[in-house]
Amino acid sequence: MAVKGTPIWGCAKTPYSRQGISDLGSARSGLALNLSLRKWECCCLRVSLAQRAITPVEDEKPNLPGMESAGAIERIEDNESRGFHKDMNLLPKPLTAADISPLPNDGSKVRVAYQGLPGAYSEAAALKAYPKCETVPCEQFEAAFKAVELWLVDKAVLPIENSVGGSIHRNYDLLLRHRLHIVGEVQLLVNHCLLGLPGVRKEELKRVLSHPQALAQCEMTLSSLGIVRINADDTALAAQMVASTGLRDTGAVASSRAAEIYGLEILSDKVQDDDDNITRFLILAREPIIPGTERQYKTSVVFTLEEGPGVLFKALAVFALRGINLTKIESRPQKQRPLRVVDDSNEGSAKYFDYLFYIDFEASMADPRAQNALGHLQEFARFLRVLGCYPMDTIP
Ligand SMILES: O=C(O)C(=O)C[C@]1(C(=O)O)C=C[C@@H](O)C=C1
């Protein structure tokens, strides 16, 4: 049984759904319009200064760093028309590189989409990458991709693999279906808690709700308690449902932050089977980052190969020959071309799946070894795409 996600109740943030995203399509042009208006307003401000004309400037016009307020501009022009130019401090200061530098490193002003409700591990991953970011909950993974594509947010954070449960295949497929770039990774130590209504003992629980990955990560603990497991879209939604239904015999596997947000009690801490339960998340953006060599970088690629003996061996050799370490290899059936007929001489033809290969390797695209390896791979890969080159996260 799967409990479908519904927008959050009594919470400031409502997750974006696919419907919501399409509705917001028109809001996007509004946003663009707004931006161009702002640019235009700035131009007006400059023009009026250059012409030294007293132009009425409305209060809500943006005060760009280094530019004085509208009132100040009027005062300067007033002074100058009377022939004095005393207070140099009132003159607008030219913009410096610092004023127009990119977003601050701590992530303030960055909007990051994630799948789930507040308290989900994906939100924790977003906050690990950008401690002061604004997190934006989305109902599905696809909504998070679209939120970036439609400029509703700056980035999306998505789980890609877990040390116990393995790969999150849906996100591998979505990476290829969308044109976003991987700009970072987050390794998050996931400590699951068994949550229940205040005053409930864990022996009273008959069922537990959670994300299927989280349930799988706590398989042994939950089996020993003999509790029925029910899938939910994310761990925070599970916690929220236990709180809103008020069922004393129902618990949730979720984070301690989810317990805090939804007013549940932690009945058991660290209920995952493996203490080092680590989920790796990818950070996606509209634009790739410019790779460097000043720190450790990882590059992710996806490719397909012609059929034949040893082709995968050859593909992997392009990295081995240059001493490049591979950190992950994943294969997914190719949906547009699922089956390959290899032998139709006998009765009934033999058919095999055709695969996409996803590889992560430890090298920056700024490193000639990586460039040469991909150039070499391109010689015999039918299709090759670089999904992103990004700094490695080495501390879970
Ligand atoms: O449900 C959540 O809280 C999530 O962020 C999703 C998710 C996942 O998809 O793997 C993330 C981390 C944990 O491994 C369990 C669940």
From TrEMBL:
All copies of domain Prephenate dehydratase, residue ranges: 111-286
Pathway where this protein functions: Amino-acid biosynthesis; L-phenylalanine biosynthesis; L-phenylalanine from L-arogenate: step 1/1
A GO-annotated cellular component: chloroplast stroma
Reactions that this protein is recorded to catalyse: L-arogenate + H(+) = L-phenylalanine + CO2 + H2O; prephenate + H(+) = 3-phenylpyruvate + CO2 + H2O
Keyword Transcription regulation tagged: no
Species per Swiss-Prot/TrEMBL record: Rubus argutus (Southern blackberry)
NCBIfam families xrefs: PRK11898.1 (NF008865)
One Pfam family linked to the record: PDT
Regions annotated as coiled coil: none
EC number: 4.2.1.91
Enzyme class, spelled out: lyase
Name the UniProt record assigns to this protein: Arogenate dehydratase
One Gene Ontology molecular-function label: prephenate dehydratase activity
Alphabetized UniProt keyword annotations: Amino-acid biosynthesis, Aromatic amino acid biosynthesis, Chloroplast, Lyase, Phenylalanine biosynthesis, Plastid, Transit peptide
Subcellular location per the Swiss-Prot or TrEMBL entry: Plastid, Chloroplast stroma
